Amino acid sequence: MAAEQEADHSTPPVGFVKTPFINVCHTSGLKITHINDNATTLWPRPLAQTWTLMLLLVTCFLFWSRMAMPICAVTLAKEFGWSKTETGMVLGAYFWGYCFTQVLGGHASDRIGGERVLLLSTPSWAVMTAITPLLANIGLQPLVTMTVSRFLLGAIQGVHYPSLVSVCAQRVMEGERGFAMSTLACGCYLGMILVGGVGSLMLDWFGWKSVFYGAGLLALCWTFCVWKCLIQGPVFSLDSLWISNNCVPESTRINWLYLLREPSVWAMIISHLCFSSSYYTLMSWLPTYFKEMFPHAKDWVFNVIPWIVALPTSLFGGSISDHLIRQGCGTAAVRKLMQFCAMGAASVFIILLCKTSSFVQAVACVSVAVGLSTFNNSGVSMNVHDVAPSCAGALFGVMNTCAAFTGLLMVCMSGYIIEITDSWVTVFSVLAVVNIMGVTIFIVLGDAKRVDQPQII
Predict the structure, then answer these.
(1) How far apart are CA 149 and CA 215, in angstroms?
(2) Using one digit for the tens of pLDDT, what is the confidence trace for 263-273?
(3) Quick one: 27 and 130 in the same domain?
């Protein structure tokens, strides 16, 4: 029996590559491998390719679920008699919920594995998405029920991106993380294409409820496939987070007070905050903008074309950033270059959007702005791996919490501005200014030097 136990401690879980000096804890049959400065846990290439595909798909379905409400906002506002301010309140409720679970999701992912956190969260938001149409007819005001459902959806989906960041930090080789994150980000753009194309057709043919049902069903199918085929061992045990946290040696725990005193960390947080809040606002209101400015335009054109452009630009950004780093360019310089494209250059086309009255020109401006924004996947989103790989999920959770809160404020404020001014110029101008402020701070203070080295306190 002792020999069997010894062998168990020396054998890594199926499908993982174990390198020396990894600390392993066993909780309720689940082997949890912790990463410290001298160790990493990597997926072998075939498994990494399979997981990359599955994570891309679930991100695609998540964005269908997330954008179902903005796509249907005009129809819902007309059916339920919502004003612009009330529509902005419903859309913005998502970000209230999104604020609360970011750090929790990142911490859990760093401890038990982001793939397991995703397997727990995905069926939850799938069910919430599918029952959203039912909540409109339960006897309460649709404005109340829809706002609550958006809040809960945001809370459940808040763990998603911190989990992806944690997975990338723990399972992907350092020189391949830029392309991996850019590939996973393509799930966002595929989701936008899917909901913009298929979702718009479903909206026209079968009504707005079908858009929500479709996203929920696809996500539940994904959960079943991953649970049956890719996850070994129990998904989660109640004591796993507590035990795994105590299995981490004192010398490898992160001193968060030390981490948050670093200017490079705050530059990363502020830049991500500015980028995400402007991006969330743009994505939330673009369907309404095109509906009002170009009422005779086909929905699928402006809901699909920008995201078709985003797919190759995201992959290009990830490839070129990894290539530049392999060629000897400074990592910090590469991150800043990518972020300048994502925020500075994209802002030029957001401003141009204020000046155009042509549908073709408007679609072109939005497409270029969205395409350039994908370089963020190789900029600030990757900088968290450079600065603090051992707690990447939790730190990204902190960043996304701040971004979700400001995103909520900007989405709601934008609805109010549009209603009182009856103009989109002010909104787009504010988004451009926020972007320029964020990228300036990152260029001045950002760095790629690792600052999460264990601090003994």
Answers:
(1) 15
(2) 999 999 999 99
(3) no
Q: Which domain does 151 fall in, by range?
A: 43-239+254-445
Q: Quote the pTM value.
A: 0.70
Tell me, yes or no, whether 232 and 91 share the same domain. yes
Residue with tokens 């846990």: 41
Same domain, 29 and 81: no
Q: Do 309 and 357 fall within a single domain?
A: yes
| Number of domains composing the chain | 2
- pLDDT greater than 70 at residue 361: yes
Would you state the pLDDT for residue 377?
87
CA atoms within 13 A of residue 358's CA, in its CB half-sphere: 5
* pLDDT digit string, tens, across residues 235-245: 544 444 444 44
Phi, psi of 455 (to 5 degrees): -115, 120
